[in-house]
From TrEMBL:
Official protein name in the record: Selenocysteine lyase/Cysteine desulfurase
Superkingdom field: Bacteria
InterPro entries: Aminotrans_V_dom, PyrdxlP-dep_Trfase, PyrdxlP-dep_Trfase_major, PyrdxlP-dep_Trfase_small
Pfam families associated with the record: Aminotran_5 (PF00266)
A molecular function (GO) term: lyase activity
SUPFAM superfamilies hit by this protein: PLP-dependent transferases
Keyword annotations from UniProtKB, A to Z: Lyase, Pyridoxal phosphate
Signal sequence coordinates: none
UniProt key word Oxidoreductase: no
Domain Aminotransferase class V: 15-352
Amino acid sequence: MKNFRNQFPVTSQYIYLNTAATGLLSEDVFDYRQDQNLDFLTQASMFRDHKANLLAEVREALASFYHADANKIALTPSFSYGFNILLDGLAKNTKVLLLEGDYPSINLPVEARDFDIVYAAINENLEENIKKAVEKYQPEIFVFSVVQYVSGIKIDLDFLKELKENYPELLIVGDGTQYCGTETFNFKESGIDILGASAYKWLNAGFGNAFFLFKDHAAEKIYPKTIGFGSNIGKYKQTENALIGKFEPGHLDTSNIGSIKQAILLQEKIGVELIEEQVKKLSVKAKKAFEKLNLLAPDVVNRKTHSSLFNIKGSDELFIFLTNKGVICSQRGGGIRVSFHYYNTEDEIEKLITLIKNFSK
């Protein structure tokens, strides 16, 4: 795993614990983007002709990677872009279940529309809270982040399968931006009906790209009005009024969208199972270390499993101290958010703990 740190030059300069904010750009993806720009510079319209199959190739790479259907994968510049199209395809007064304090790019667009909105609390009893809210309010749609951006609390994917079995008409829509790229995931076998994600974080695909995976029945509940010349052009979009075409009304940046495939190829080269193993190992080690120093909220401590994203107790002064020591992290939710990906090491966790202890002396 250490050999692949060479793909990410930033790791040689800093202790980079900020993938939850921005994932590192690999040399493979950087080289791909550079080559794309050079080809465009020297080929102009011929470049576009040569890239006619690119979107299909990216869909196929995602379909293989996440066990989804290529003809039900939409490509967008960001999660928010696609999510707003999705919401505009829902009927007014649709009853939507949200999580209190979920990522603003989820809750704000829902709250800005004429939906009937209900909420469940995010805490150590997350799944039970959701179950009770569904039983009480009978929502038509449940929208949530797979991993919470402030606390790092990760929803139980087995719970979602059970929820879907018990409420088959409930449309379950997940934001995987803080999740996709951290472990193996089988979309077809999951309880999620629609999964969207920006790919610049844990997939390390750079900015300007995202994707949405759909199951068959999702098209029966969403009717986006968005349409353009690009909506019915290209492989997998030739059926008139195809759902994924509604998410792609115009041109997409081939360099940005193509980076998704390059990022997937790198993860496959490393081994997704190895990435998952490393991320989980770092998560367990960090959680134990933070618990000993009483740096975690009870909601996180009392969860059986957790993501590799943590919000630790810490003042502005501690944040500045860590930053000055070369630790790249973020301030979120009144604390300091640190996140560990496969290019991080156990030694970096130990260095972070030592710095925190030294600051406290």
